[in-house]
Design brief:
Blueprint lengths: L8 H26 L4 H6 L7 H7 L2 H8 L17 H6 L3 H10 L3 H15 L2 H9 L10 H8 L3 H7 L8 H4 L3 E4 L13 E4 L1 H7 L13 E4 L12 H13 L6 E6 L3 H15 L3 E5 H4 L6 H14 L3 E5 L9 H12 L4 E6 L13 E5 L5 H14 L6 H10 L4 H21 L11 H12 L1 H4 L3 E3 L12 H15 L1 H7 L12 E6 L6 H12 L3 E5 H4 L6 H16 L2 E5 L2 H4 L8 H19 L3 E6 L7 H4 L4 E4 L5 H10 L13 H7 L4 H18 L5 H14 L6 H6 L1
Parallel strand pairs: 4-7, 4-8, 5-6, 6-7, 10-13, 10-14, 11-12, 12-13
Antiparallel strand pairs: 1-2, 3-5, 9-11
Helix pairs in contact: 13-14, 16-17, 18-19, 18-20, 20-21, 23-25, 27-29, 31-32, 33-34
Length: 722
């Protein structure tokens, strides 16, 4: 918009209002002349409070006859019209009016209509004048009939100019003027409809900025602030967008699609672009626009009008629209964008290519996660900016381990600094100038990334380490190989070029098989603890839905959230989905196979670690197991392994009576590690109750309870005999 925000709205408005005043003065004079034959009517000329009923009750028959004899080709309030081009000539001297006229190609008549509708918004005395001229104190806005009478010199023009109030007329179609029915009539004619100027047009003509009140619940207004430091974002993307914007024609529609999971970074990039252009930015939330859903299109129209009038950039995240039940709204949304004026930035996680048939001319901009070397630069820059020094190994760990964008990295460093200061404040003896540690930064990263995934999966506290888990040597070696593949994946794939040789994804897909209680979940925790990543458990029996297509939706939400959270995924009960795929006998068999294939596809595309657990290895078909990186078997522990488990299950603070015989327990209680842990914990509670050390009696009682849960029995006689 070529009009500056600081221009004087009063200087733009006064010439237009002065022209309106001249028209109204002539109209009032004409009305008084018509009514001069009746004294009562003359008295009423100075007030605008008469109702229509009173007016006609006091109207003498001579007045009615005079009106009936009036020439039909001349409007009742016919005045000496100024030249039709007068409004256009005045508008050329008023920047905002001239801009509006040029944008919509408005005629002088349409400009006069806007002035008529605007006047009551500025001075309520215009309401009284309109009420008087319309013979009814209730009607304080100009109706179509009054407008035509004031602005048309003949009945022919009145008929011709009715077209300016049709639904497809520029003023009505663009939402500038609303044509409202008379609330006091059941089916009012067009002439009885009233004119209401849109609030945003009023705001624009008065030189005011900011959001319209109708947008406040789902939009945020960000003013350009040159004094504010630019956010840490990828400058290459911003510079490319700015070059594209500079190449467009004035007011030409331009739409970008910011693609990727790095939502905070995409928003910061939009803010940086608006800052460079010295234009405001409107952040719109699609969820708010959809509540209630029947108001979505009207809200979208108001939003796009705000972008046009305020010369603002629009940023809107559209993933919430891409669902089958919103397909109609989504297509209407894309169609409306093609008629928008200005710069629009869409944001989403899905590739734009699948939507090219619906919306043309959209420029996809990839916000793929930066490579490790680039992330290292961002980490170093963010740490240096706040005076934090981490050693090279720690910076390398952060850049390799977490797939973060520059904005997320800067936020994590800021959060870590605040947490370090808070920890120092809790300790009176420590200095407030403490620097955050690597653990502070890791905690900040995890807290930033995992709020979305927490709603879809259960977080598992990963406290176990290598000394806590008891497995055969080969199984332990496999677990360490899994960790090493994750640690050194960038060296092998990127530095050594295996990404050019491999057609599969670079994630690690693992199967843990074995009976319950053999350490599968603990092993996943050990891996998470070693790699300093969060572990989330997903129960596949809860993910699988009886409704066709719902399982894929559930899986898609989980993997998208996990991609952003850099988490290890542990899928429990894989048998619920990965049993031997049957021959297709009906639609449900076909869609069950699709669900399996879809999960395999998502696992291979996932660049993290995905672990599946199963109690029955033989239930999985070979086509599936061939696509796994590791298959680790967790056997039931033998006596030697059980002895190790009995040794490691106790915390160092637990008092054990000298009589506790771990060899006896390992030899006689042929149980898995999960059962042994349960027995040890229950025995500790029994000892705490008696305020004594854990004895064999406590262990016997706890073991008997564990056998009962398993549907077995263990008598004291059998315990002593064994």
């Amino acid at each position: 918009m070529p009009v500056k925000i600081g221009d004087s709205w009063l200087n733009s408005l006064l010439p237009m209002l002065q022209r309106l005043d001249r028209l109204l003065e002539q109209a009032i004079a004409t009305a008084e002349t018509i009514a001069s034959s009746n004294t009562a009517t003359n008295t009423a000329a100075n007030t605008a409070t008469n109702t229509a009923a009173n007016f006609y009750q006091e109207l003498p028959i001579e007045q009615v006859e005079q009106w009936l004899q009036h020439e039909s080709e001349i409007p009742l309030l016919a005045i000496d019209q100024e030249q039709p081009e007068a409004a256009l000539q005045i508008a050329q001297q008023c920047p905002r009016w001239h801009w509006l006229q040029q944008q919509l190609g408005l005629t002088g008549f349409e400009l006069d209509v806007i002035v008529l509708a605007l006047a009551p918004e500025l001075d309520r005395r215009y309401e009284q004048i309109y009420a008087y001229l319309q013979n009814d104190g209730r009607y304080r806005r100009p109706c179509v009939d009054l407008t035509l009478n004031l602005l048309c010199a003949s009945a022919t023009l009145k008929l011709e100019h009715r077209r300016y109030f049709a639904a497809n007329a520029p003023l009505v179609r663009s939402g500038i003027v609303r044509v409202l029915p008379d609330p006091y009539q059941v089916e009012p004619s067009l002439l009885s409809h009233f004119l209401k100027l849109d609030d945003q047009i009023v705001q624009f003509l008065l030189g005011q900025t900011g959001l319209d009140s109708r947008l406040g619940s789902f939009c945020k207004w960000i003013e350009p602030n040159p004094a504010k430091a630019m956010p840490l974002v990828r400058t290459t993307i911003i510079e490319s967008c700015l070059r594209q914007i500079a190449a467009r024609q004035t007011n030409q529609y331009l739409c970008f699609y910011f693609e990727g999971t790095q939502e905070p970074e995409k928003q910061q990039a939009a803010i940086a672009i608006a800052q460079n252009l010295k234009q405001p930015l409107i952040l719109a939330h699609i969820a708010g626009m959809l509540e209630p859903r029947d108001r979505f299109e009207s809200r979208l129209s108001i939003l796009l009008q705000a972008v046009w009038l305020q010369d603002a950039l629009l940023y809107i995240e559209i993933d919430g629209l891409q669902s089958p039940d919103l397909e109609f709204s989504y297509h209407r949304f894309l169609a409306a964008l093609t008629e928008a004026k200005g710069i629009v930035i869409l944001s989403g996680t899905k590739p734009w290519g699948i939507l090219q048939e619906t919306a043309k001319g959209v420029l996809p901009v990839s916000f793929a996660c930066p490579e490790p070397l680039e992330r290292r630069v961002y980490w170093q820059a963010a740490l240096t900016a706040v005076g934090v020094n981490l050693n090279d190994a720690d910076v390398q760990l952060l850049s390799n381990r977490f797939q973060l964008g520059p904005t997320q990295i800067a936020d994590a460093v800021t959060t870590a600094c605040h947490q370090a200061k808070w920890n120092a404040a809790l300790n009176p003896d420590s200095s407030m100038h403490v620097q955050p540690t690597l653990q502070d930064v890791l905690t900040a990263v995890h807290s930033q990334l995992h709020h979305h995934l927490s709603a879809l999966a259960q977080k598992v506290g990963a406290r176990a380490n290598w000394t806590d888990i008891v497995l055969p040597i080969d199984a332990l070696s496999q677990l360490r190989e899994i960790c090493n593949q994750f640690k050194y994946r960038y060296r092998v794939y990127r530095d050594w070029g295996f990404d050019q040789k491999s057609f599969a994804g670079q994630g690690i897909n693992v199967l843990f098989s074995g009976p319950p209680g053999t350490g599968k979940t603990m092993a996943a925790g050990v891996i998470a603890n070693e790699l300093q990543l969060e572990l989330y458990r997903i129960d596949l029996s809860q993910v699988v839905s009886k409704y066709i297509g719902e399982t894929e939706k559930n899986l898609d939400r989980i993997f998208r959230a996990a991609e952003a959270a850099n988490a290890i995924l542990l899928f429990d009960e894989a048998d619920a989905l990965f049993g031997k795929r049957s021959e297709i006998r009906d639609a449900h068999d076909r869609f069950a196979n699709i669900e399996v294939s879809y999960l395999l596809q998502k696992m291979e595309a996932y660049e993290g670690i995905a672990i599946l657990t199963t109690n029955l290895r033989q239930n999985l078909d070979e086509a599936f197991t061939r696509r796994l990186s590791f298959i680790v078997h967790f056997p039931a522990p033998d006596e030697s392994s059980r002895h190790c488990i009995w040794q490691t299950v106790w915390a160092a603070q637990v008092p054990l009576a000298p009589e506790v015989d771990l060899d006896f327990l390992a030899r006689q209680l042929k149980l898995n590690g999960g059962n042994i842990k349960n027995i040890a914990l229950a025995a500790a509670f029994l000892a705490a109750e008696t305020n004594s050390a854990v004895t064999m009696h406590h262990l016997f009682h706890a073991a008997r309870r564990e056998y009962q849960k398993m549907g077995k029995s263990l008598s004291e006689t059998e315990w002593k005999m064994t």
